[in-house]
């Protein structure tokens, strides 16, 4: 079953590679219990098929970095990027994309979050295995308020501009 507007985020744990210790986080991969991390916050969450893939690196992540200040002004507390990659890959991609302090790059290494949301994408034929569909959602206090799922091969509704407009409407 696919997650819907009004549903809570799945009760799973993602991983985040941290380069500087702080707020109880040590250097290296740290667990991020999704429901606990989203509690009491407004999260702009976007998910994508994989780190370093062309659309993800050239458009998806850069768009959220570009709109960071506007998303914050619209009431977004944190921006999360979720991908079916391990924490080390997400950490390296975060460095390459310059996301520190703006976008949390969260690893869904075993696709547990993707499976729990029902938003998986089977890219086995392309040698990539089970991945996440491309989508974005606005989450308030752990509850999905908007959901924008892309059609296969598209990048039209999960972009930062779409989520920014929705955040402004909800704030």
UniProtKB/TrEMBL annotation:
Role summary: Thiol-specific peroxidase that catalyzes the reduction of hydrogen peroxide and organic hydroperoxides to water and alcohols, respectively. Plays a role in cell protection against oxidative stress by detoxifying peroxides.
Annotated source species: Tepidimonas charontis
Gene3D superfamilies in the cross-refs: Glutaredoxin
Recorded family membership: Belongs to the peroxiredoxin family. Prx5 subfamily.
Positions of the Thioredoxin domain: 3-171
InterPro entries tied to this protein: PRX5-like (IPR037944), Redoxin (IPR013740), Thioredoxin-like_sf (IPR036249), Thioredoxin_domain (IPR013766)
A GO molecular-function annotation: thioredoxin peroxidase activity
GO terms for cellular component: cytoplasm
Protein name: Glutathione-dependent peroxiredoxin
EC number: 1.11.1.27
UniProt catalytic activity: a hydroperoxide + 2 glutathione = an alcohol + glutathione disulfide + H2O
